[in-house]
Amino acid sequence: MDSLVDDLGLTVKAVNAGRNYEPAELEPGVSYRSGIVVRASGGGVSINLELFRKLGADAAADDLLERLRAVSGVPVTARSWPSVPCESLLGDWSRTRAEFIEPYFHARHELLNLARSAASGPNSV
Description:
46% of the residues lie in helices and 18% in strands. The chain has five helices and five strands; from the N terminus they run αββββααβαα. The radius of gyration is 15 Å and the shape is globular.
């Protein structure tokens, strides 16, 4: 994940359990803005899909959940904060990056753009 920070414009924050990778600019209107949290000591990877759901982007969250299932091979059922073992994402890292990690952060960028559009209102120039 560290190798993606510059490529995807991410911010890395140390958290008690490991490292949190999130967009440099965060979406307004949600409590938990974490992105992808890689937990230390074999704790796995947790993904914040809750913010998509809180912002009404359930279709994007569902798509990302399906992508996570496909690349990890794990039958994830949690809809808001799914977790998978690190190993399940590392087996084919290039596929994981292309089919899940990059789409996740691109979708986060789209959420930010939608939030900006909504904030500017229909009468903005």
